[in-house]
Design brief:
alpha+beta, L-fuculose-1-phosphate Aldolase, eight-stranded mixed beta sheet, binds 5-O-phosphono-L-ribulose, zinc, arabinose catabolism
Length: 231
């Protein structure tokens, strides 16, 4: 069942250490099959060196295991809440990648300071608030998903135009149309987090990208008249 998706999710998980986004088991990737309403996620706490495609766990949108021998990622309820709320999302990634986590620990949005950012994210990547004691008690991981939704709704941000968020004091989540694009978005977020920190260090008054350039770069890749790359 869902053998191809398991392979895709497995390969996407292997990309995390390859791209330098994680150490040890500090991350997870999932992808959903919208037809069955089931998603595939990596098992919790299993070394990337020994993990196999057959170790991937299939869960439903309530996070209940449907297939697999292992316990799914501890972040499964966060993934489930996001898949349930946003039908456009096909893949989700969580990491503790260093540069993005620095911004998360500083409690700051990652501003658009260059075209590298604008090519992927149509605006600042928001930093969501800390969870309250009541939220932690109610279910930390599911409430984390709800805080992400709250952040995007309160700020009126389109989830697919800005496919990532920072969780204050924790780290980034990114998403995309599938697992591969969600991983690419994590790589971009990590790179721009690093670039921005150095740019602000060199010049505390370094400006954000002006709107016309943000529009041009984002829309030429993602707008309805996109023309970047090959047909
Ligand atoms: O954030 C954390 C731990 O603080 C987790 O996302 C991370 O360790 C990955 O956990 P899983 O191996 O996916 O259960």
């Amino acid at each position: 069942m869902l053998e191809q998706l398991k392979e895709e999710v497995f390969q996407a998980n292997l990309e995390l250490p390859k791209q330098g986004l994680i150490k040890y088991t500090w991350g997870n990737v999932s992808a959903i099959d919208r037809e069955s309403g089931l998603f595939v996620i990596k098992p919790s706490g299993v070394s990337y060196e020994t993990m196999k495609a057959s170790d991937m766990v299939v869960v439903d949108l309530d996070g209940i295991v449907v297939e697999g021998e292992m316990r799914p990622s501890s972040d499964t309820p966060t993934h489930a809440v996001l898949y349930k709320h946003y039908s456009e999302i096909g893949g989700i990634v969580h990491t503790h990648s260093t540069w993005a986590t620095i911004w998360a620990q500083a409690g700051l949005d990652v501003p658009v300071m260059g075209t590298t950012h604008a090519d992927t994210f149509y605006g600042s990547v928001p930093c969501a608030r800390f969870l309250t004691q009541a939220e932690v008690d109610r279910g930390y991981e599911a409430e984390t998903g709800r805080v992400i939704i709250e952040t995007f709704e309160q700020r009126g941000i389109d989830i697919m135009a800005v496919p990532g968020v920072l969780l204050k004091g924790h780290g980034p989540f990114t998403w995309g149309k599938d697992a591969k694009s969600a991983v690419m978005n994590s790589v971009v977020l990590e790179e721009v987090s690093k670039m921005n920190l150095f740019a602000r260090e060199l010049n505390h008054f370094a400006e954000e990208l002006p709107k016309p350039i943000l529009d041009k770069h984002y829309l030429r890749k993602h707008g309805k008249n996109a023309y970047y790359g090959q047909k």
